[in-house]
Design goal:
single chain, 365 residues, mainly beta, 28 strands
């Protein structure tokens, strides 16, 4: 049976106030619970375990020891201001764990030549998660630097934060910088992630995607700023700001929200979407993409084969874009596209760019 794409389009002259404020860099989401909102079971500093933060020493073992010291009651690991070099991944295994810093000046940076993620939960990458899960984890107020220029090129698994199987995770007030691959990846383990929020964070110069949602439900991206530069190893701005792509057999993404965010990049003739929904190995269902500003991507929003998708109140701008694409593109499935502004201030006639593109020609519009 042929799938049906339903799109409703209505012009709007009003831009949501939050988006205007977000462009100025001041918009944050009001919901969600950050590490600073919790009463910790106890707080310890990574310095107590020997971390130096001098920009030279490999502090990964000291930070791992601090994280491992959190008991069943939970607690907070504090990373004071400094530059902590990381040579191996830090695994978060215990429930009710908070890792927080003093703001952007608390920097964790991969060592030159390191071949590692930075944070992973609940087990090291490559280990089965069939019987492993971690709950109630908070990471906030840190700069996580992938050191792309000092790392091997085309590294396949360089991720700032990899969530394999977790429930109720809050990532907030982070600066994610220069990751050779994805900055944050949700999936793919043996079971779905539930209740993951990524909010109020800044992503700069990713090698592929800023955020990858690959397996889970009740996933939320809110109040983030993704900016890319034309120096990425996959080609100039070759990745997506948010990539909802199911990877792994028997995986799915069911129930997600991407809202109140700014995805912006400089002009480029290569690939790259603001928000991409790509089923790959499993279904994508029940998602909302709303109240975002999306600037100069090949497709502002790309809806592949997905069901129950709402795209509303977004402002898609092309004022320095040289790639063939569309403001909003619906490939197949069921989607409601309503009350968006698509503003083509610069129309790259030589390459072709459409405001809204419906790929399935028999779909009612």
């Amino acid at each position: 049976m042929r799938r049906r794409t339903t799109a409703r389009l209505r012009a709007s002259l009003a831009v949501p106030l939050c988006l205007v404020v977000l462009v100025a860099g001041a918009c944050t989401s009001s919901s969600g619970t950050g590490a600073g909102d919790r009463a910790p079971g106890g707080e310890i500093s990574v310095r107590r375990f020997g971390a130096r933060g001098d920009g030279v020493t490999d502090d990964s073992r000291a930070i791992q020891a601090a994280v491992d010291s959190i008991g069943p009651a939970g607690g907070t690991v504090r990373v004071p201001a400094g530059t902590y070099r990381i040579g191996s991944q830090v695994v978060i295994r215990h429930d009710h764990t908070t890792v927080t810093g003093d703001g952007p000046q608390s920097v964790m940076k991969l060592l030159d030549g390191a071949t590692s993620n930075m944070f992973v939960m609940p087990v090291p990458f490559g280990t089965s998660t069939a019987d492993a899960v971690v709950r109630d984890v908070h990471i906030s107020r840190l700069t996580l630097d992938g050191n792309r220029n000092g790392s091997p090129q085309k590294a396949p698994t360089f991720l700032g934060i990899q969530i394999l199987h977790a429930e109720q995770v809050d990532l907030s007030q982070l600066v994610m910088r220069d990751w050779p691959y994805d900055a944050i990846s949700v999936g793919v383990g043996d079971k779905p992630n539930v209740g993951v929020t990524i909010r109020d964070s800044h992503f700069i110069g990713m090698g592929r995607n800023a955020i990858h949602l690959g397996f889970g439900s009740n996933l939320r991206v809110s109040g983030v700023f993704v900016e890319d530069t034309p120096s990425q190893q996959w080609g100039p701005a070759a990745g997506n700001a948010v990539d909802v792509e199911v990877e792994g057999l028997n995986s799915f993404v069911d129930g997600f929200t991407i809202e109140n965010s700014l995805f912006a990049r400089a002009g480029t003739r290569t690939a790259g979407y603001g928000v991409a929904l790509q089923p790959a190995f499993g279904p994508i269902r029940n998602g909302v993409i709303r109240d975002n500003v999306i600037r100069n991507h090949q497709h502002g929003v790309f809806v592949g084969t997905a069901e129950g998708i709402t795209v509303e109140h977004n402002w898609v701008i092309a004022d320095d874009n040289l790639a063939t694409g569309a403001g909003i593109s619906v490939f197949s499935g069921t989607a409601t596209v309503d009350d968006n502004v698509v503003n083509m201030l610069r129309w790259p006639v030589d390459y072709g760019w459409a405001g809204v593109l419906i790929h399935q020609p028999t779909a009612p519009v």
